[in-house]
Amino acid sequence: MNGTGDVCGSVEPMSDTWGRLKARLEELRDLGSAQKLFEWDQAVLLPEKGGRGRAKAAATLEGISHDRLTDPEIGALLDELEADDSLPDDQKAHVRVTRREYDRATKVPADLVREIAELQGISYQTWTEARPKNDFKMMQPFLERLVELKKREADAIGWEGERYDALIDVFEPDMTTAEVEKMFADLVTGLTPLANSILDAAGDKPEWLNAPYPEDKQMAFSHWLCEQIGFDTKGGRLDQSPHPFTIQIGVGDVRQTTRTEPNTVMDSIFSTLHETGHALYEQGIPEELNGLPAGSVASLGLHESQSRMWENQVGRSRPFTEFMLPHLKELFPENLGSIPFEEFHRGANYPQRSLIRVYADEVTYNLHVALRFELELAMFRGDLAVADLPGAWNDQMDSFLGMKPSTDSDGVLQDMHWSIGALGYFPTYTLGTLYSAAFFDKANTEFGGLEEDLRKGDGSRLLIWLNDNVFRHAYLREPKSIAEDIIGGPITAGPFIEYLRTKYSAIYETQF
Ligand code: ZN
User: Fold this and answer.
1) How many of the other CB atoms lie within 10 Å of CB of 277?
2) pLDDT(325) > 80
């Protein structure tokens, strides 16, 4: 889309009303593009002293975007277009998504928006001080107030089943609390005993996992690896940042970052595969939709399904680790030169009990997420007082993984999410994991020889399949229906549990 209207073969008559809305949407897109470039720049390049000036510039842009989006003229155009049955499907989808954004931006009173934004800033700042001091009491009043304000926000937006639905809906449109609660209940029942048996079988950590790996070579490998599986460097970049992320700045410009640690190579390999999964989805959005509201990824859960699939189902598989090892031996002969394949594969999948979510492995990660979901839902429903959060956290950790944090810094204070009021966000991590296992299963049965492809480091046929089943739909449809079409019904924990059971039974040569 180049802003001048119809440029491709199928020329649709463009109604005046649609043309007027489209011009406004393109302006919002361009403002958003500048905001995202600021965000990327701040994480990758911005010198320390530039932070304050940039925050002000970003706030100015945010204010302009918000004013443009909430202009009553947009509401009037939407009313008119929603009454027009003759609208082509893609325009209907853009109208549907714009309505969603417009309603969210206009229904919440301006003073509540301001109060939440101010509180988030102070609360986040307090969290950065409370965690090193191990002082939950510092955070408590902020969390209590944030929960209150998020309740008011949910009521302003509206909900049908229960309040928490409005929070989930921000990140996972069309998904309800009841569905997510059932998903986690099934997951926890199946995963807790399996994870603990796998952890008990894991044995000592191989020494070569934590040895010095030159970081420039890690970056060289990351650049090579992301291109190998299909990342288009003419339409994107890979850089470094402490917290890896992927962001689409505009059409033909998808930026991803990875990180390196001096004493392990696994972190950079799997961060790169993870972010490349996100980036391939962004690069796969059809160009003719790109930049308009429905020309985007459909939800965070679907986004995460792509990153987890390339990181885990592909990256940690036997055939793909077999493909990577000779290249890694060449780069790091002193650490990996004499490591046999079986040992490398086991190392790439080494599970261990950890108190900290961001260091958790594929086996335990989703128990960390389940814990957060259960606690935040209880807190939001009023079944758990904020003051009782640290104790509830420690008890749940004990019941899932048999370990209790000795400090709140390693417990309830470890993530920044709650400090900024990001409630409803955690479930998308697990939804993505469950989708990734179910999708990969489906791809495997729908076309033969995937294992052979991966042994050659060739993801091209998998990418074509993902394009047909996920990417080309962009956000033309609700994410749940895109996923259910692939799976053949609602998402369950079954395929993920079976995937872990099969993989680890082979690795430790025992039947879990
Ligand atoms: Zn991710």
Assistant:
1) 30
2) yes
Residue 257 bridge partners (DSSP): 239
Distance CA 19, CA 468 (A): 29
Among 242, 215, 228, CA closest to 332: 215
Query: Which helix (H) or strand (E) is 236 found in, with range?
Result: strand 236-240
The mean pLDDT value for 481-502 works out to 97
Specify the 3-state DSSP secondary structure of 201. Answer: helix
Q: Which residues are part of the catalytic machinery?
A: 275
CA of 300 to the centre of ligand 1 (A): 8
How far is the centre of ligand 1, averaged over its atoms, from the C-alpha of 278 (Å)?
Answer: 7
Strands 236-240 and 253-258 come out as parallel
Query: CB–CB of 96/388 below 8 Å?
Result: no
Distance CA 493, CA 485 (A): 17
Mean pLDDT within 189-209: 96
pLDDT at 297: 97
For CA atoms 211, 215, 221, 227, the dihedral sign is positive
Å from CA of 404 to ligand 1 middle = 27
3-state secondary structure of 43: helix
In the predicted structure, residue 3 carries a pLDDT above the cut 70: no
The pLDDT score that the predictor gives to residue 12 is 53
The one-letter code for the residue type at 272 is: T
Q: What's the CA-to-centroid distance between 308 and ligand 1, angstroms?
A: 7
| pLDDT tens digit sequence for 275-305 | 999 999 999 999 989 789 999 999 999 999 9
- Please enumerate in sequence order all residues whose Cβ is within 8 A of that of 498, keeping only pairs 6 or more positions apart, or say none: 437
Provide the pLDDT for residue 446: 95
Amino acid at 85: D
